[in-house]
Amino acid sequence: MKINLKTFVLPFQYNVDKSLEYYKILEKLLNRNEYFVVGKNLIRSDALDKCLGKANFTADYLSKESLIVKVFRSCKSHAIIKNIETSRAMNIPGIEAIITARDIPGINQIGYALPDQPLLNDTKVHYIGDPIALICAQNEEAAQKAEESILIEYEELKSVFDISAALNPDSPLIHTDGNVAVTTKIRKGNIEKGFKNSNVIIEDTYWSPYQEHMCLETDGAYAFPDGTNKITVICESQSPHLVREKVAAILGWKLNQVRIIQALTGGAFGKKDDTGPILAAYAALSAKTLGKPSACIYDRIEMFKTTPKRFPAKFIYKSGADKNGNLTAIQVYITLECGAYANRAPFWLWRQTAHAAGPYEVDNVAVDGRAVYTNNVYGGSFRGFGNLALHFAVEQQIDKLAYELCMDPLDFRLKNVLKVGSRTTCDQILDHSVGIEKCLKSIEDASKWKEKRVPIKNGNTLKGWGIGCAYHGNSTSRSTPDWSAASLLMNIDGSFIYRTGICELGQGSPFGHVKIVAEILGANIESIKIEIPDTDSTPDSKPTHGSRGLMMGGTAAADAAIQLREKIIKIAAEMLDCSLKLVECKESYAYNKENLNKKIPFNEIAEELHIRGLNPGAYGFYASPKRNYDEETGLGINYSVYTFASTIAEVEVDTETGEISVLKIWPSMDVGKAIDPIIIEGQIHGALSQGIGFTLMENVQLHNGNILNPSFKDYIVPSAFDTPEVDDPILIEEAYKHSAFGVKGVGEPSIISIVPAIVNAIYHATGIRFNTLPITAERMHKALKEVKK
Amino acid sequence: MKPLTGFNLVRPRTLQGALTLMATLEKTQPIAGGTDLIPLYREVQCEKTNLIDLSLINELNGITESLNCIVIGSTTTHTQILSNNLVAKHVSALHDSCSVLGSVQIRNRGTIGGNICNASPAADTAPPLLVHNAEVNISNQNNNRWIPLEELFKGPKLTVLQPDELLLKIKIPIDSDSASAFKRLGRRKGFTLSIVNAAAFVKREEGLIQNIRLSIGSVAPTPLRIKKVEEEFLGIEMSKRVLDEIGQACSDQVKPIDDIRGTAEYRRDMSNILIKRALNEAWRRTGGIIE
């Protein structure tokens, strides 16, 4: 199953020669120098309903007569299925059907990057929890009895629970083509020469473990038949159109026979990009087979034990610098643990490979990556997408080099960070929108960094300060086509319906789109309603992942708004009897800039549009500038733009108990343009908790493929008490030329620099380096004990 | 979502009614706040249980003072204890533990009787009650007896309670010249189970330890009273060195295990640290200073 990366390249070119660079909308198009809503903190349109509990999530849509779809799963980590016996279970009252692989009308395949993952397994199981059958029951009790009555005859195979065992030549094969699912490579400059010119070389190995997302809303999907040849599924996902594609393939239907409605989603963090299609397919299979509404809703334990987690990864780093503090070369080996299926591993691994130098300029680079199967639960999308683990490693390497050179870690970074004109890991020249230097300088001042270079001992506590930097390519990588779409409809009363396939997951991205639309139209923000994504009417905006929701989706929104604005202005100019240039729109009124007395409300313009037979709608489409990628060297224009971030952390270590407290955080991020600063602040605060969790406490405990702590009781995530003081986030605005108002993504970049900042602060306080996470109180205590010896 | 099935919930309004139900029904299980039982039933399927809800019985709820003792009814919630002045004044270790136990929601529902009868080695109210020499009142339809709390615990999740017996109240002697304190360590700063917890009770005569009682939780099958160490240090003059010796001696007495919350080695080390911190705080509360 070796993957040829060229298969990701679609054979068409984009037309991106737009006369308008989107970041200049304000001056070039709107012809004004002030924003009405962009950059202002407004109350989100979904806030009140969510606060009042009136917002509807997937499980709120279930009808009383809905069947329960329960997944029957493997209790073996690696085994051949010899026989599946369901007749006893079928006889239990209340059981309507038991669906196995042979009942799937279409293609029994749900793998994301590689076709290695059947929706239901009938020949082999690859991890504890691998799905085998769907129990469709009238009630929970019957479903539970049926679960106990299905008999599977297994022929057990030897299991492999870690990457080194999987890479052993004698290892059993988890999938037919070998245990290495995919490899990556970068060759830039000459690393031998680079290391020869190094005065300091740091070599170390890092391990970044699994992390569970702990979304508050557990996975769920509700499907119901729409006549005999169509199914509607209400579900959580991060890409309703991907869900539609997968469900249609499994049902053996055309895309227009499947309708996916994206319910508001209570937390996703990448998880639901992976689970969305799977649960939707389960529910849809039952609804199609039985012609009855069917729901598949996981509880916390099932979600925890069986769904993808942050991919674990091992990094072997060799980094060099000369005596002047210039980075000279890096050599990196990355081994990603896929778990039972590749899922997103090729993309995850590539992101790590492509960012391997960190946000620094290094002339000589060699990176080799491979993704390896094991019989553990499989990995998947998670905020940071490989870059969290990568920066945990690279930012410690940078810190170690700085200390080795007796340089201030911040000064060392400033000397090496990417600037306009720098080349990235992949030799991509950055010609604009590079704000990392400004990020660093701003938090250096805000935190009074220079005054904090000596750790403080006070009784049994040690206090220290650390810094972390991050960069994160927005959206998809290499030459993968990237585009987004949106539609906008002006109703006859002057209100608007806005449609985007970018999903509301709690992060607020669609509200950012609405602000962009309101800004361009001059419409009252309350007059624009966001329709929840519905594949029957919503254009395909591509997924809500890769920090692309606002950067890509919001620019498609701008495209639609610009088109509709032209029509509104045209009508208004005639109605106001003035030239196009003199028309300004504000608060859903059009007026003549030189004669403010005459105003025309949008409802009159809407009516006029309809009367004249002009289309009151607009379809926005936006494609990313063309990128390229050389398969031999891995070099090329990888991402159209990068978001940069840096964080300073203050930590305190209790030397008796090993407890680590993060006391204060100074965050900064180059966001391109802050469409809504308070939403960005929200992202930073949430990321901070998730980052502290990953660094200090979250720990998926696995024993022979079994997860031992699959609940909030024993999988410890940070509480409010663990949340530090956060200094006002510093938002740097180095606009990106090709996005609406210059916006860049913030969802993922907000978490990446937090982890190394804390880890480096712990080193500053204690002199102890940790190459694996989490750094629990117990591990810290043990490390301190060893130092004392 | 796994259904909770097979239950029969009975809600007696009188203690006599509850005891009669306990004596006559098959497979009974008393329930009050349900904060331990309901999650347990979600994890482990229990069939055909008669849940006897004690929360409507007035005489089991509340805190009173009688014969120089504080008496706490078994269905008294942690929040009720937390807001009680008698407890704050005379049983400060219990007040401490109720302020950090679980979360606000858990403290509003969870009861002290439930926390004890659940018999978790990590129960946060156990070490404070143990160092205050608490006794518990146990009753069935025919007999009523008082036993020291220490004798209630038989092992993890095991007590000496017979199938027809209920724990009615807890009695804590008031000793006004004493002070106590509680410390715990969790895997985060709040809303979590203790890896280790500890309570110390002390009476001070000038610089001498006139009386000392120590208890550590989550380091053995039951919460432990560390009597050997108590006896050893009775009458000794308190100092930093003595405090260290007490901590060390306590960690030699515990018998912890490895589990997903922590290793035996860490628990042993933390027994030392937490008992010292609890004792130091209790000593401070008596007005003493350890130098």
Would you mind describing this structure in some detail?
The complex is a heterodimer of chains A (789) and B (291). Chain A is 28% helix and 25% strand. The radius of gyration of chain A is 27 Å and the shape is globular. In chain A, the strands form 9 sheets. A 7-stranded mixed beta sheet of chain A has the order 3-5-1-12-9-10-11, sandwiched between helices. In chain A, strands 18, 19, 29, 30, 33 and 34 form a 6-stranded mixed beta sheet that branches. Chain A has a 5-stranded mixed beta sheet with strand order 7-16-15-14-8. In chain A, helix 7 (240-251) packs parallel to helix 8 (271-290), helix 11 (387-404) packs parallel to helix 19 (754-766) and helix 14 (509-521) packs parallel to helix 15. Chain A starts with 24 loop residues before the first helix and ends with a helix. Chain A has 3 domains: 58-157 and 219-297, Aldehyde oxidase/xanthine dehydrogenase, a/b hammerhead (Aldehyde Oxidoreductase, domain 3, Alpha-Beta Complex); 309-478 and 630-787, Aldehyde Oxidoreductase, domain 4 (2-Layer Sandwich); 483-623, Aldehyde Oxidoreductase, domain 4, CATH 3.30.365.10. Chain A is of the alpha+beta class. Chain B has 11 helices and 14 strands. Chain B has helices spanning 15-24, 37-43, 78-82, 85-90, 92-100, 104-109, 112-117, 126-131, 227-233, 240-253, 264-285; strands at residues 7-10, 28-31, 49-53, 63-66, 69-73, 135-139, 144-148, 153-155, 158-159, 166-173, 178-186, 194-205, 208-217, 224-225. Chain B is globular.
The gist of it:
The complex is a heterodimer of chains A (789) and B (291). Chain A is an alpha+beta fold and 789 residues long.
Number of helices of chain A: 20
How large is the share of residues in beta strands of chain B? 25-35%
Task: Report how far apart the termini of chain A are.
Answer: 50 Å
Helix content of chain B: 25-40%
Biggest sheet record of chain A: 7 strands, mixed
The oligomeric status of these chains comes to heterodimer
Major sheet: arrangement of strands of chain A: 3-5-1-12-9-10-11
Which strands sit side by side, in order, in the main sheet of chain B? 4-5-10-6-7
Distance between the termini of chain B: 57 Å
Beta-strand level of the residues of chain A, as a percent range?
25-35%
Segments of chain A where pLDDT lies below 50 for 5+ residues?
1-19
Structural class computed from helices and strand pairing of chain B: alpha+beta
Q: What is the approximate shape of chain A?
A: globular
Given helix and strand content, the structural type of chain A is alpha+beta
Number of helices in the DSSP assignment of chain B: 11
